[in-house]
Structures are given as C-alpha cells and as structure tokens.
Amino acid sequence: xxxxxxxxxxxxxxxxxxxxxxxxxxxxxxxxxxxxxxxxxxxxxxxxxxxxxxxxxxxxxxxxxxxxxxxxxxxxxxxxxxxxxxxxxxxxxxxxxxxxxxxxxxxxxxxxxxxxxxxxxxxxxxxxxxxxxxxxxxxxxxxxxxxxxxxxxxxxxxxxxxxxxxxxx
Length: 169
Description:
mainly alpha; 5 helices; about 75% helix; about 0% strand
C-alpha cells in the first residue's frame, strides 16, 4: 500500500511505460521478473534433492559464466565488454572456490539437477542485466523492483494454477 502512495514509484513506472511506447525499451525486457520466478521454481525443486551447497555451486557457475556473455553481448546498455583472460580466470576461480567447498557433497546422480542450477544462475545474470537497463529508464530502482515482483508473481501464480490437480490434464 505504501508503495502505491509513492510519487517516485509511480513516476518510475510511467517512465518505463513511456520508454516502451517510444520503443527505447523492448517490451520483452519488462518481463525480467519472470527470470526470478524461474529461478525460484528451479531452486524449490532441486534443493531438496541435491542440497543447498550443490545448488549454490551450480548457480554460481551459471551466473559467473553467463555474466561474461551478458557483458560481451552488451545486454545491459548496449556497451560490449571484452571477455579478457583476467575476467575468465576470475570466473573460473570463483566457481573453483565454491566447488572445493562442496566437492564432498556432490553425488553422481545429481548431474542433471546441477545443470538446472547452472541454468538458474545464468537466468539470474540475464535478469540483473535487464533490471539495470530498466532502471536506466525508470530512474528509480523501486519501480524496477515492483515490475519484477508483478511479472514474477504472475508467472508463479500461473504455474501454481496449472499444477493444481483439478486443472491438470
């Protein structure tokens, strides 16, 4: 309720809508919050099976490597950053450090679930880039947060409805 009373939030949402109407901000980018919803769904279904530690390793690996690609493609602002040896080594060391901390907990049968965790990390990297781009237009992080919450909640509600037994085929 307090958010709805915020003039800055409303101004930010109007600025996002105006940027979409002017075709400065692609409409699909306003659905960045659905990436967070997919992350939550993957996490909720994999953590009970592979554990938090292994999920974290996969997620960090996905986020670190996808962040290099996101920067290279210039998803945030159109500015492309080169994938330098230093950046690759940093990503590798990040993944290696987390992997060393959980290597004794990784089971052979958890491979495909760990790949889902990697995918969730990649989604987070893309979502953060899109959020930063949206905030460039809204000039208010609360507007971007609200938009994320709305689109993510809508996707989670849809998945929840579809997965209800009375709606399942």
